[in-house]
Amino acid sequence: MSTLTREGYSGTGPGAITPDGCAVELYERIPVxxxxxxxxxxxxxxxxxxxxxSGVGRMTRPLLERGFTVTAVDESPEMLECVTGARTVCSSIxxxxxxxxxxxxxxxxxxxxxxDVDLRRALLSTCxxxxxxxxxxxxxxxxxxWHERVPREGRIGEGLGRIxxxxxxxxxxxxxxxxxxxxxxxxxxxxxxxxxxxxxxEDALGAAGLAVDAYLTEDRTWVRALxxxxxxx
Length: 233
Description:
Layout: E1 10-12, H1 24-29, H2 35-42, E2 48-52, H3 60-65, E3 69-74, H4 77-80, E4 87-90, E5 102-107, H5 117-130, E6 131-140, E7 152-156, E8 159-170, E9 173-182, E10 185-193, H6 198-207, E11 210-215, E12 222-227
């Protein structure tokens, strides 16, 4: 089954496909990796976390097990049906306004690399709008050479993930094609991404009222940002 409604995005394979080409069944199979450990080491114990783009809850579950209170947000009802133990909100991230603030707002899955600049601004504004004054925003960004090391592949659980190509498709935007091969199934996904240098990334945060506090991993893909005061206030 396939639901393809977003220009530049597509997906194939068994089960429900979200508008950005993600396959729900595939993401249920992909292991979470060390991301929950990165989060746990970067935020206070028992923090409240707003997880933007939670998907099927790969990170939600281990964060709950570590004692955090998580609100999981995703635009796909099929994805959220897989999330258990957390409050869920079905909404686009860029329009989200819960009227609540959290100790931690998390924007993972390279969402900060949205191809449309206005969309990226809206995503970061949502982060800033929902974080407490003393809280932090955790952002996952692409590696510096993420689009140059193509093709490449690696094991993901019982399957193989292969980034086949990253092709310029417009000013500053690339079209990325990925294949996922499992013994019993095959999925593909094509999506758009806007690579950002470190300076461009930090400038985008600054425009949203955020500032880098620390790069949390050696490859600098996980970042902790803090809210900065509005000079007009």
